[in-house]
Design a protein that fits this description.
With 638 residues, the protein is α+β, with helices and mostly antiparallel strands. It has three domains: 77 residues, no CATH class; 316 residues, no CATH class; 192 residues, no CATH class. The protein has 19 helices and twelve strands. Strands 3, 4, 5, 6, 7, 8, 9 and 10 form an eight-stranded mixed β-sheet that branches. It has a four-stranded antiparallel β-sheet with strand order 2-11-1-12. It is elongated and about 105 Å long.
Length: 638
C-alpha cells in the first residue's frame, strides 16, 4: 500500500496485480526498486525498539545478498548501511511534511510577528483614545465609579475589537487556503488537503484573540484609569501634552513595530533575492521553447525487440511536425526526478580512482539530444548514425567529469571502462558538454556520462524532448495527438514545457518568498499606520504649542522639521533594533537561501531605505497640518 498525505488515490489495486497493471515492470521481484511503504500493527506488549531490531536483522540478511552482487566497496557499504526506522502510523506518510515543514514554520513565525505589530497598533489606538477620554474617566471616578469597573468597560471594548478582528481573519482564511495549496502544489499534482477552518481553528483563533486582548488591552485600560483627579478635571484637551507613561508606552510600541517590520522585510527580501537567483541561474541548458513528453513503452506492451523501431518513428514524426526545430529521446528527463548511477569508471593509463570517484550518473540519449535541450557541446561531436552496435562504444561526458579525470588535457579520444565484471565495456570519449542541473537548481553538478541508445539497447527511453520555433505551450495538444498516430497504444504520461518542469522544483522557494513578501508588506503598512497615528495624535495635542512657537518667530519649515524629526527619531531607533535583530536571526535562514548571504548588504540597505522612506511620508503628512495653522487661531485652540 502506498498513500501519501495530500495525494488522494482515486483507484486502489491489489499489490499482487502490479505486473498486470504495469506491464514490463516486475517490481515485486526487483532488487534495485524501492517503491513500497509498509504499515504494521504492533502486538500488545511489544515495544517499538524490539520491532525495529527484528526488522533490521531481516533487512541485514537481505542487504548482504544484494551487496554481494557488486564489487564496488563504496556501493557495498552504502547498501549495508541502510536501516529501517519505523514511524508512528497516525502521522501518515507525507512527502509534503518533509518538504514544507520548515517553510511553514517560517510562515508561522512571520504571522506571529504580524500579530504582534497589529496588537501594538491596537494598543496605541487604545492609549490615544484613553488619553482623549481622560477627563471623562476622571468625572466617572469622582461621581463614584470604581476603577475596576472602568477597567472592565475598557477591556470589553478591546475584546470586542479582538473578536471582530478574529472573525475577519477566519473569513480571509476561507479565501486564502486555496492560494496556500496552489503555492504548495508541485510537479503539476494538486495538493489535496482540507485546510478550511474547523472547530480547532476556531478555537485556536479565539484563544489567540482573547490572549491578545488580555496582553494588549488590559495595559491601556489600567493606564487610562490611573488618573490624578484634580489636574484631570481642570485640564482641557488643547493643553494635554505628549508626556506621561501612556505616551512613552506608545512610542515604545511604535519603535517595536518598526523593528519587527524591518526584520520581516529583510527576511522577505532575502527570500525574494534567493528565488531570483535560482530563477536566473544558468542550468546548463536552454529551457525556453522545449516541450517534454513522458512515454511509457513498457506499459504499452513493447518488448526490447520493438523499442528501437518505436523510438525512431517517434523522433521522425516529432521532427516533421510544423513549428518543430528538432526532437530527441532520453531515459532520464531533465528535472523529472529520475537519474541512474553507473558503477566503476576506470580510466586507461590512470591509477584506479578512489571508491567515491568511480561512480558516475548516466543517461541514454538519441542523436540530437544536446541540440534539442540546448546543452552546448564544448568539445568533440554529438552522437550520430555511425555510432551503432558494430562500432566502437562511445560516450559524451560533462565538464565536471572531464575535470575530475582529465584536469590538464583534452579528454577527446581517451578511453575508460564501465563496470568491474567481465562484461565491462570500454568507452571512447567523443565529446564534452556543458555542466547542467538535472533534478534541482540547488544541487551540486555531478559527474555525468551520456551514452547513445543505439549502442545500449538494453535500456529504455522515457522522455521525448521537442524544440519548437515558437511557444511550446501551443504545441502540447498537437504533439500529443500526432504521437498517438504512431501507435494508439502508447501511453503518454506527461506533457510539459521544460520551463514548467524547472519552475515546479521551486515550489518551496516560491511559497516562502510569496508569503513572506505579503506579510512583510502588511507589516510595513501596519508600522507606517502606527507611526502616522502616533504623529497625528501628538500633533493634535500640540496645536497650541505650535501656535506659541510660530508667534515667537518660528518658521513653518522649522515646525515641520521639528515634528518630522521626532517621528524619524523613533523610526531610526526601531530600524537600529531591527537591523541588529536581523543580523542575529537571519543566520538561521541560511539553509533556505541560495546565492545570497544571510547578511546580504544590498538587501539590508535597500529594505532600510524603503522603510525610512515610508516612515518619512507617514511623519510628513500629519506634520503639515499644524505647520499651516494661523498662529492666532492656534493660540485660541481648545
Amino acid at each position: 500500500m502506498k498513500e501519501s498525505i495530500g495525494r488522494l488515490p482515486e483507484v486502489w489495486i491489489p499489490m499482487m496485480m502490479q505486473s498486470q497493471v504495469m506491464p514490463g515492470r516486475a517490481y515485486l521481484n526487483a532488487d534495485d526498486v524501492k517503491w513500497l511503504h509498509m504499515m504494521a500493527r504492533i502486538k500488545p506488549g511489544v515495544v517499538e525498539e524490539q520491532v525495529r531490531a527484528n526488522l533490521n536483522v531481516i533487512l541485514r540478511q537481505y542487504l548482504s545478498e544484494i551487496a554481494g552482487k557488486t564489487k564496488d566497496a563504496r556501493q557495498q557499504q552504502e547498501i549495508l548501511n541502510q536501516r529501517i526506522e519505523p514511524t508512528p502510523g497516525s502521522k501518515g506518510i507525507s512527502d509534503l511534511r518533509q518538504e514544507f515543514s520548515q517553510p511553514l514554520l517560517v510562515l508561522m513565525a512571520v504571522v506571529g510577528l504580524v500579530l504582534l505589530i497589529t496588537c501594538a497598533n491596537v494598543a496605541n489606538l487604545l492609549l490615544a483614545r484613553a488619553t482623549v477620554r481622560h477627563k471623562e474617566i476622571a468625572v466617572r471616578l469622582v461621581i463614584g465609579a470604581g476603577r475596576l469597573r472602568l477597567v472592565r468597560q475598557l477591556f470589553i471594548e478591546s475584546v470586542s475589537l479582538a473578536a471582530l478582528g478574529g472573525s475577519v481573519a477566519l473569513l480571509l482564511a476561507y479565501w486564502g487556503t486555496d492560494l496556500l495549496l496552489a503555492l504548495m502544489s508541485n510537479a503539476g499534482i494538486p495538493v489535496r488537503l482540507d485546510l478550511h477552518p474547523d472547530v480547532r481553528i476556531f478555537g485556536f483563533t479565539g484563544a489567540v484573540s482573547l490572549s491578545a486582548s488580555f496582553v494588549f488591552g488590559l495595559a491601556p485600560a489600567f493606564l487610562a484609569t490611573r488618573v490624578d483627579l484634580a489636574p484631570a478635571l481642570k485640564e482641557n484637551p488643547g493643553t494635554i501634552g505628549g508626556s506621561g507613561l501612556g505616551s512613552r508606552l506608545g512610542r515604545v510600541l511604535v519603535i517595536a513595530q518598526v523593528a519587527a517590520s524591518l526584520l520581516m522585510l529583510i527576511g522577505a527580501g532575502l527570500f525574494i533575492r534567493s528565488l531570483q537567483k535560482l530563477g536566473n541561474l544558468d542550468a546548463g541548458f536552454d529551457r525556453e521553447s522545449v516541450l517534454v513528453l513522458g512515454i511509457d513503452p513498457e506499459a504499452s506492451g513493447y518488448d526490447n525487440t520493438q523499442l528501437g523501431s518505436l523510438y525512431q518513428r517517434l523522433q521522425e514524426r516529432a521532427t516533421t511536425l510544423p513549428g518543430v526545430h528538432s526532437a530527441a529521446l532520453s531515459d532520464n528527463g531533465l528535472f523529472d526526478g529520475s537519474t541512474w548511477t553507473s558503477c566503476c569508471v576506470s580510466v586507461e593509463e590512470q591509477p584506479p580512482a578512489q571508491d567515491e570517484g568511480r561512480a558516475v550518473r548516466a543517461d541514454l540519449v538519441t542523436p540530437g539530444f544536446f541540440a534539442t535541450v540546448g546543452m552546448p557541446l564544448l568539445q568533440g561531436r554529438d552522437f550520430g548514425p555511425q555510432d551503432n552496435e558494430s562500432t566502437t562504444k562511445v560516450g559524451v561526458i560533462n565538464e565536471t567529469l572531464s575535470r575530475y579525470y582529465f584536469p590538464d588535457e583534452s579528454p577527446i579520444g581517451k578511453r575508460f571502462s564501465l563496470g568491474d565484471s567481465q562484461e565491462s565495456r570500454t568507452i571512447e570519449i567523443v565529446g564534452v558538454v556543458k555542466d547542467a542541473k538535472y533534478n534541482s537548481l540547488r544541487e551540486q553538478t555531478p559527474r555525468f556520462l551520456y551514452l547513445p541508445y543505439s549502442q545500449n539497447a538494453y535500456g529504455l527511453l522515457h522522455f521525448l524532448a521537442i524544440r519548437t520555433l515558437g511557444d511550446p505551450g501551443r504545441m502540447i495538444n498537437i504533439a500529443r495527438r500526432e504521437l498517438q498516430t504512431v501507435d494508439k497504444r502508447l501511453r503518454i504520461t506527461q506533457v510539459k514545457t521544460l520551463t514548467q518542469q524547472v519552475d515546479e522544483t521551486l515550489a518551496q522557494e516560491r511559497l516562502i518568498a510569496a508569503s513572506s513578501s505579503i506579510f512583510g508588506l502588511l507589516s510595513l503598512l501596519l508600522a507606517s499606520i502606527g507611526l502616522y497615528g502616533l504623529m497625528s495624535y501628538t500633533v493634535s495635542r500640540r496645536v497650541r504649542e505650535v501656535g506659541i512657537r510660530m508667534a515667537l518667530g518660528a518658521e513653518r519649515g522649522d515646525v515641520l522639521r521639528l515634528i518630522v524629526g521626532q517621528g524619524m527619531i523613533l523610526t531610526l531607533m526601531g530600524a537600529g533594533i531591527g537591523l541588529a535583530g536581523a543580523f542575529a536571526l537571519t543566520r538561521v535562514l541560511t539553509s533556505l537561501l541560495y546565492g545570497v548571504t544571510a547578511t546580504d548588504p544590498a538587501t539590508f540597505i535597500g529594505i532600510s531605505l524603503l522603510l525610512t522612506g515610508v516612515a518619512l511620508l507617514a511623519c510628513y503628512i500629519p506634520a503639515r497640518r499644524p505647520a499651516k495653522v494661523d498662529p492666532m487661531v492656534a493660540l485660541r485652540y481648545e
